[in-house]
């Protein structure tokens, strides 16, 4: 008899994801913290370059998430040999996709960024970062598939160790390449990108070694791979094409958000990047619990118990708030404590405090919004999640135009109100779908 996942079982799946996300996002935090001591131009450019890279990365990550949903469903159905086929065929496909995106970036990015960015200094720093960072697609796509595999089979502890290795590598390599230590030249923002790429390579090497030693490769038919099978990719794409679009859209709108702020000034962009990095600290637990919801919902559906889905999601939501609320309290009690991680410039610190307050409070909407949205994805209705995300992004873009570009607020804090609009719309549409739509018998 199927029993709804207990808090302990939910935490067993979610905490390694959370720890891995915390450590993985130390890459972004490290880049921001180090570059905050290089200059405001580099600090602002790293926001644009980092989000631009993430938009490209999310195409592959969306594909891996579709694979994760499919592997989780097969795990619930006890069809273990199908999981290995999905994993290996999807990895091969993503390597080809990385090569394509790398080539397109070389051709299109300089023109596109010159069109979007006003400041010549920020444009030059952004392209310098991307010239190195784009090579990381090959390694980050492979890592995304390993993550999808381990989350899909609910064996997530490996994610923690791997993320720690990657983060420590990134901190050391960033320090060496940004500031020019141990005989290396000081590369500034280019060094941050190079350090991130090499740390992702180290991450992939560890995943491969661990999987060969610790995973029952016969159980998952890992060595049955003999040739590329388009039928498997088509099956994955039936689920993942929507998640690819779904994950790409919010990041590209996030890029537009930073471009809009760049039009207000270099100082405003630097402040927005600092606050974005602080926001990452909050979004990590939200993302971890949302990924857990997606996996456990898919497992429940595979086991034939769709009636448990709403209760699973509500329980996960409550647990997420238990993590988020203490972090909110920390920000309001000691705001400068977090900001000093990123810069020792007192003007930047004082200019960031109000923006950080506004940012933190929208997580009251982001927690249920993200978890209900990933619940919809976990049911296998990824086309629906794409429609929800597309409509939400449209409303968000309108809000950016009106609030930031039309009214051009003097204080960056007012710009963050567009996030309230985004999460309110996403929450409403996702909740209505779970409440009203017929998703209980969805087959994938």
From TrEMBL:
Pfam families referenced in this protein's UniProt entry, alphabetically: MatE
Presence of keyword Repeat: no
Residue spans crossing the bilayer: 12-30, 50-71, 92-112, 132-151, 158-180, 186-209, 241-261, 281-298, 319-342, 354-374, 386-407, 413-434
Membrane topology: Multi-pass membrane protein
Compartment(s) where it occurs, according to its Swiss-Prot or TrEMBL record: Cell membrane
The keyword Ion transport is annotated on this UniProt entry: yes
CDD domains given in the database record: MATE_like_7
InterPro entries: MATE_fam, MATE_MdtK, MdtK-like
Keyword tags: Antiport, Cell membrane, Ion transport, Membrane, Transmembrane, Transmembrane helix, Transport
Name used for this protein in its record: Multidrug-efflux transporter
Gene source species: Coprobacter tertius
């Amino acid at each position: 008899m199927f029993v709804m996942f207990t808090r302990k079982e939910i935490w067993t799946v979610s905490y390694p994801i959370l720890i891995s996300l915390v450590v993985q996002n130390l890459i972004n935090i490290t880049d921001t913290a180090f570059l905050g001591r290089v200059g405001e131009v580099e600090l602002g450019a790293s926001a644009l370059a980092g989000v631009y890279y993430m938009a490209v990365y999310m195409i592959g990550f969306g594909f891996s998430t579709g694979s994760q949903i499919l592997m989780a469903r097969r795990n619930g159905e006890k069809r273990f040999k199908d999981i290995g086929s999905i994993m290996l065929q999807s990895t091969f496909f993503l390597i080809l996709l990385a090569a394509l995106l790398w080539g397109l970036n070389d051709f299109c990015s300089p023109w596109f960024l010159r069109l979007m960015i006003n400041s010549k200094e920020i444009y030059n720093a952004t392209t310098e970062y991307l010239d190195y960072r784009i090579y990381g697609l090959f390694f980050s796509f492979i890592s995304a598939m390993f993550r999808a595999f381990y989350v899909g089979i609910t064996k997530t502890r490996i994610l923690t160790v791997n993320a720690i290795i990657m983060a420590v590598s990134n901190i050391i390599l960033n320090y060496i390449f940004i500031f020019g230590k141990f005989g290396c030249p000081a590369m500034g923002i280019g060094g941050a990108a190079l350090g991130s790429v090499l740390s992702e390579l180290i991450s992939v090497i560890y995943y491969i070694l661990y999987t060969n030693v610790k995973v029952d490769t016969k159980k998952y038919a890992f060595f049955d791979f003999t040739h590329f099978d388009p039928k498997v990719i088509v099956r994955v794409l039936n689920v993942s094409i929507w998640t690819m679009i779904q994950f790409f859209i919010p990041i590209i709108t996030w890029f537009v958000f930073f471009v809009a702020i760049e039009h207000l000034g270099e100082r405003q962009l630097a402040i927005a990047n600092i606050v974005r990095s602080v926001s990452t600290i909050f979004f990590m637990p939200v993302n971890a619990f949302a990924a857990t919801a997606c996996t456990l919902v898919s497992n429940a559906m595979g086991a034939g118990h769709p009636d448990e889905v709403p209760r699973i999601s509500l329980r996960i939501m409550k647990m997420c708030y238990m993590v988020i609320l203490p972090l909110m309290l920390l920000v309001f009690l000691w705001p400068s404590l977090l900001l000093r991680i990123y810069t020792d410039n007192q003007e930047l610190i004082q200019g960031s405090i109000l923006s950080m307050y506004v940012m933190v409070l929208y997580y009251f909407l982001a927690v249920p919004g993200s978890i209900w949205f990933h619940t919809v994805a976990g049911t296998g209705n990824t086309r629906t999640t794409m429609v929800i995300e597309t409509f939400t992004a449209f409303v968000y873009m309108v809000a950016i135009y009106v609030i930031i570009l039309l009214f051009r607020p003097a204080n960056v804090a007012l710009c963050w109100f567009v996030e309230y609009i985004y999460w309110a719309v996403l929450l409403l549409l996702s909740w209505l779908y779970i409440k009203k739509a017929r998703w209980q018998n969805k087959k994938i």
